[in-house]
Amino acid sequence: MRNKFAYGIIAICGLVLAGCYGGGSSSDSESSSSSGSKDNNGTFNLVVQQEMPTADLSVATDTISFTALNNVYEGIYRLDKDNKPQPAGASEKVKVSDDGKTYTVKLREDAKWSNGDPVTAKDYVFGWQRTVKPETASEYAYLFEPVENAADITAGKKSPDELGIKAVNDHELEIKLAKATPYFDYLLAFPSFFPQNQKVVDENGKDYATKSDKSVYNGPFTLEGFDGPGTDTEWEYKKNDTYWDKDEVKLSNIKVNVVKESSTSLNLFKDGEADDIILSGELAQQNANDPAYKSFKEARTSYLEFNQRKADSPFKNENLRKAISYAVNRKSLVNQVLGDGSVVSTGLVPSGMSKDPKTDEDFAKEAGNLAPYDKEKAKEYWDKAKKELNIDSLSFELMASDTDSSKKVIEYMQSALEETLPGITVKPTPVPFSVRLDRSNNGDFDVLLGGWGADYADPSSFTDLFVTGNSYNRGRWSNEEYDKAVDDSGNKDASDEEARWDDLQKANEIISKESGIAPLYQLSEAHLVNEKVKGIVHHPAGASWDYKWTYVEK
């Protein structure tokens, strides 16, 4: 997801559950394509590509929402520039018992909500219970499964007040885990684990967090001007005067504007109306030598997900899925279509995020290329699939978000599949981001261009997604051997680093080779960033954003 600390708020970064920037431009305004923002009063103008689907901590699932939530809320921890958890809402490092199952948290006594209420241990207890209870229907409830009784609560078998978290007093929490969890410190920096003010939630009822004034905030900024999930195209983050560390927050406000066309974003940047934009394709390549250009590789894999929910779905056929995966020239896709620094995905888990505890080898490099391009094999698998399915042709929709880059990707996929696999017809279907989320959650798709960015720096952030029954397994691919490998990594082998690593590698291999999903590319984002912002820190993964900016007058 993202990270905090260091002087630069990654909060400004926009998409993807991975970090953002590294370094500022040393150029002056005349050598850049932009004169920068016309506002020198601590305001940053940010362009994002999609509307925000929700501002509710318990139900958020996407990177646009989490970007906002990381700006306006704060949890027990945040991640520093080296991706290490550091106290945020906590006053000191969390104490962990020898068996790794009991966490004792001392909270800051000076932390307040934006309405002046103190942030207390009860706010964490309430927020966690609200997220795991079945009525909330949180897709991220599964992340709480390491916490005692969480899985049973979500399944309706136990009461939310049996969750393994309690307020010892106003500023001390005790967390009980069902099992030792190597990455739990990272979860304490993840927005789903942030506190929530029960009084405000109860007062607003079903309207809670539907607009910016229907919530209160405990982070470095408050959310302002947000008028509705999935539709609003402008909102702001304003400096929070009740924030305990407000003196270190260098920006007074961040104005966010949704612009889906790269060409429009570029014009805004050149006219000084935007300080950070995202480019793709030809525009990214054309501006690669601009001093304001930055390409940020993210811990995110983009992939095709096949809808296998119905018993008669053709995508239950493994040979069909393999044919589609083998037919994609991923090198051409990243170099000629995206052109933003994205690289070929060789499996489900991205590179640069995690290393073998024994050899220090990168996870993706060690796994090798599990998703190769091979036109002849693609045709062979297509021929097998046709015989097994008793068909001569197949038509399907390929759905994606309606950003410039996503539309170009699915158009490329249409061309590649129809050319390589005679008889296949692909209908590119770009839809607004919130519509894509709704349709994918409801199973209303054939094939989906989706993706995932690390919620925490561990391969399990990806492998957990596709176990049978996980809410993010939107195509409902299922494999018993895969499920066992993932289960072993979190239970039987949880305390054995090397055995756990092997389990995760096994799961990655199974889903990639069976084309349970078809990995395509590891996302990079090509940005133009105003040179007045200095010291912006890039993090490959993590769960919170830097909130400190150095604002440089021109």
From TrEMBL:
Name assigned to this protein: Oligopeptide ABC transporter, binding protein
KW NADP (keyword) present: no
PROSITE patterns: PROKAR_LIPOPROTEIN
Family statement: Belongs to the bacterial solute-binding protein 5 family.
InterPro entries in alphabetical order: Peptide/Ni-bd, SBP_5, SBP_5_dom
Signal peptide: 1-18
GO cellular component: ATP-binding cassette (ABC) transporter complex; outer membrane-bounded periplasmic space
Solute-binding protein family domain segment(s): 84-472
An example molecular function term from Gene Ontology annotations: peptide transmembrane transporter activity
Coiled-coil regions, chain positions: none
PANTHER family: PERIPLASMIC BINDING COMPONENT OF ABC TRANSPORTER (PTHR30290), PERIPLASMIC OLIGOPEPTIDE-BINDING PROTEIN-RELATED (PTHR30290:SF10)
Species the sequence originates in: Enterococcus devriesei
Pfam family, one: SBP_bac_5
A single BP term in Gene Ontology: peptide transport
